[in-house]
Amino acid sequence: MVDSKRVIPLESNPSIFNSLSKKLGLSPVLQFHDVYSLTDSELLAFLPQPVYAIILLFPLTKNYEQYRKSSDKEQSKYNNEKFNDVKWFKQTIGNGCGLYALLHILANLPDDFIIDNSILKKCLLSQLSKSLSVKETANLVEQLEKNIQLDSNYGTQGQTEAPDASESIDLHFITFVKGKDNHLYELDGRRAGPIDLGISTSSNHILDDSKLTEKIQFYMDNTDDENKHNFAMMAMGPSLD
């Protein structure tokens, strides 16, 4: 799919993602929190639990792109076969990976966390169906973006100067969630479909899942020295307010 539109990329900033989540219709009982470690028990203790999902920002290096293309070649064409277990959206908006990472969380949360009559329910969730093609589902996301006007409302809210929408960005957001089948999924709109990482090893929340730590560590271990520190994580969990 060719990007039909390009937007200003979102900054990895919980306040921006919380604001956008609220606009879309997330219940105020949940919010995003920075994650500073997946292995340091003292740092993890500060995170409100349970954690429902993780957003990872990581660099798009040459090694990663080779890995992505090679892995996706092995996958058969995805036609929403996993619809009942996990919701996945093909990215067709250039630089829009932050929005897709967020939607991959919101669409996979229990329904009572999304406010009735919200823009998310009206424009996207209520229209999703297993019978829709990947392209038709992607079109719903594009229409949703037009309604929220990502650039004018969120693209320049970060603490650093926002790049132009036409620029190619070498950082990318993906999401990790637990599906209804109790499998851990990696959700990335640039991939060929949802990536099933197997049955979750956690009975509580995904931060206890060894598969999550292993996959994120894999990405960290396979980047170059120049990009070793270009990673950031946010968790979706209970609000502190």
TrEMBL record:
Its EC number is 3.4.19.12. Pfam families: Peptidase_C12. The record marks 91 as: Transition state stabilizer. GO terms for molecular function: cysteine-type deubiquitinase activity. It is an enzyme of class 3 (hydrolase). Keywords: Hydrolase, Protease, Thiol protease, Ubl conjugation pathway. Residues 6-238 form the UCH catalytic domain. InterPro entries: Papain-like_cys_pep_sf, Peptidase_C12_UCH, Peptidase_C12_UCH_sf. SUPFAM superfamilies: Cysteine proteinases. It comes from the Eukaryota. PROSITE patterns: UCH_DOMAIN. Belongs to the peptidase C12 family. This is Ubiquitin carboxyl-terminal hydrolase. It comes from Debaryomyces hansenii (strain ATCC 36239 / CBS 767 / BCRC 21394 / JCM 1990 / NBRC 0083 / IGC 2968). The lineage of its organism: Eukaryota, Fungi, Dikarya, Ascomycota, Saccharomycotina.
